[in-house]
Design brief:
The chain is built from five helices and three strands. The protein is mainly alpha-helical. The protein has two domains: about 60 residues, Orthogonal Bundle (Multidrug-efflux Transporter Regulator, Chain: A, Domain 2), CATH 1.10.1660.10; about 55 residues. The longest helix has about 45 residues.
């Protein structure tokens, strides 16, 4: 089944599993710019591609301002300065994600240890 050339507002929300408020906010801060016909909004292939990048950026932990920069770079493929800026952004975020991963792994180990301590204490108690 082929995707329609344009999605309406409701279809766009459903396609990306975002709330109407989120979609309107992304439009308000000019991350996306749907076509307007009266009060209706329509999203073409460009906006669908931008929405994919926005959500990918959010998943990677980028701020909306960083995503704005990413979208500017995406729109100007092949420009050396912008690609270098993107690489620096990606490197910074990779360091941050690694730090978060290490912190999460440490928390998981601590919680396992606490759980095991509580389970051991419970085994020592008499049955009710």
């Amino acid at each position: 089944m082929t995707e329609p050339a344009r999605l309406n507002f409701k279809e766009m929300c459903a396609r990306f599993e975002v709330t109407p408020r989120t979609l309107r906010y992304y439009e308000y801060i000019e991350l996306i710019a749907p076509e307007r016909e009266g009060r209706s909004r329509f999203y073409g292939p460009r906006e669908v591609a931008r929405m994919k990048l926005i959500l990918r950026g959010r998943r990677f932990g980028f701020s909306l301002e960083e995503i704005r920069q990413w979208l500017l770079i995406y729109g100007k493929k092949g420009e050396r300065r912008q690609l270098e800026a993107w690489l620096q952004m990606a490197d910074r975020q990779l360091v941050e994600l690694k730090r978060q991963k290490d912190e999460l792994e440490s928390s998981i180990q601590d919680l396992h240890a606490l759980r095991e301590t509580a389970a051991e204490e419970m085994r020592k108690l008499p049955e009710d």
